[in-house]
Amino acid sequence: MTIHEIRTSFLNYFQKQAHVVIPSASLVPDNDPTTLFTGSGMQPMVPFLLGETHPLGVRVADSQKCFRSQDIDEVGDNRHTTFFEMLGNWSLGDYFKKEQLPWVFEWLTKEIGLNPKNLYVTVYRGNDDVSRDEESVGLWQKIFSDVDIDAVVIDNSEKDGLQNGRIFYYDDSKNWWSRFGSQEKMPQGEPGGPDSEMFWDFGESLKLHDASKFRTEPCHVNCDCGRFLEIGNNVFMEFIKTESGFEFLPKKNVDFGGGLLRIAAAAANDPDVFNTHIFSGMKTVLESLSGKDYVGNTHAYRVILDHLRAAVFLIGDGVIPSNKDRGYFSRRLIRRTVRFGRNLGITESFCGKVGEQVIKEYCDVYRNLLDKRVLILEELTREEEKFVRTLEKGEKEFVKMFSASKSISGENAFVLYSTYGFPIELTEEMAVEQGQIVDREKFTQEFKKHQDLSRSGSTQKFAGGLADHSDATVQLHTATHMLHKALRTVLGTHVEQRGSNITPKRLRFDFSYGEKLTDEQKQQVEDLVNTNINKDLNVHYEILSLEEAKKMGAIGLFEDKYAQIEGKIKVYFIGGEAAEESFSREVCGGPHVNQTSELGHFKITKEESCASGIRRIKAILD
Fold first, then answer.
1. Distance of alpha carbon 474 from alpha carbon 575, whole angstroms
2. Fold assignment, 462-621
3. 559 pLDDT exceeds 50?
4. Is 296 exposed, middle or buried (0-12, 13-18, 19+ CB in 10 A)?
5. CATH superfamily of 3-275
6. Sign of the torsion angle spanned by Cα atoms 166, 169, 174, 179
7. How far is CA 402 from the centre of its chain?
8. Is-above-0.85 flag for pTM?
9. How many angstroms separate the CA atoms of 424 and 421, rounded?
10. Segment 343-376, tens digit of pLDDT
């Protein structure tokens, strides 16, 4: 069965059990400050689990889009993905365990056709706060008995292995569910409860091969050896954490979460979720572009397949790649994709081509992907092309650094980050590939040190220049650099800055020039600034010696102490991965925007004389 057939089957089955089918919520949560993304099927349902009345009743079912940023580094094996869909059925104070467990078992075995002999379950062991879930054990024993399976209960499988068991007790680190994990991690006011997880057995041979690091350890359903795959979790949401411990919620709730992709893998009896049909079109594109098959290149393929699928859905829900907040994760996914594409030998732009296949596979179910197709593909391609330049330069510098000392220090990692825009995560990955570990603590120290120096430098320089460091003021500050360059281009390189004052409302820029600007000259300056704003140029800085800065053609007051850091100066570049390709190169302490597209439209509002041989321009961004 395809994942679309499985999704439809699930929703139809629970619709027959009097559930109302609801659409998936966005990956960007509504009114939930606790997290950046919708990371579980239950997240949009929390208000109703806490007692708020659902407008559609007490029985609902859905297939919820989810994204877990913390799983990015786990992707590459045969089961982890950052984006996934959770099939869910919900009882909001209506039915409970005795209805839920038989229903989900019937759906899996009768509707999907899973062999019950390959299904194993776990239950909550209990502790001093909440007693063990013996009710679920009894229900499972009857369910298995009805299909002629003797369900042996085991309470120590972590130590002694399976022991021919079918039902296994685990503590709250495994069989308790809340958004925050175990009972200890839950804050007051958080709902949670014991759960009963369901596992598919792919067979003993997966554990016993010589390469398995689990070969000599006891095998049990939660051991991660690859033999067992969790495919669903029945959560019995009946508690809320209070100051005095755990108390019952006013109504008992059921929350089932079934991993759609994992259920498809179980239905195919293939432990590799990336072999499900949904990735076929994407694989075909990658095979054509790289000339390499999935088999033998699984790690790179899996990263690309997962990350581009996730990026398509994130952008579709409004998460545009950027350096901040949610956008950082869209950017990181695409950038990791680009690097692994290079590992496959892909030399042409490919993110948009693979993204097109993602949209094709999912658009019938998620119409917003089709509605935003042009935006999604443009963002994928733009981010890829931008990062290719950064990657090429950063990788070369990494090789130089590693060749010199056979290691990458925290200081090296910071230079790669600050000078070349090379993400620390990629530096760490490349170091691991060389058998090295980057000193992240030292990197953080270097990062903080230069942050502090930049702040103090900015304060000294702009005490009378920048009114504040608000977004609007910072944007106008970057525009001032672009104005300076435009004036020197239109009027001549003899033009020099003679002062500036920038507020959130406007910039004021004084420069040496003996004549009033003509309307044509002012229009040329405006057009030049706006043309480069629209190019979405990258803004970054490098710490250089005085000699290096002058050699690169940087302009500014080199003798000023504001931009000096340990005898060197800070030069901001607007555009160009290589310094000589940049639009503007100017000595400055900052702060600045990350991309010129953040500026909007530049407009000169006034040009006048302010002293003999000195002209003044006032301008705004709108």
1. 17
2. Threonyl-tRNA Synthetase; Chain A, domain 2 (3.30.980)
3. no
4. exposed
5. Bira Bifunctional Protein; Domain 2 (3.30.930.10)
6. positive
7. 28
8. no
9. 9
10. 899 989 999 999 999 999 999 999 999 999 999 9
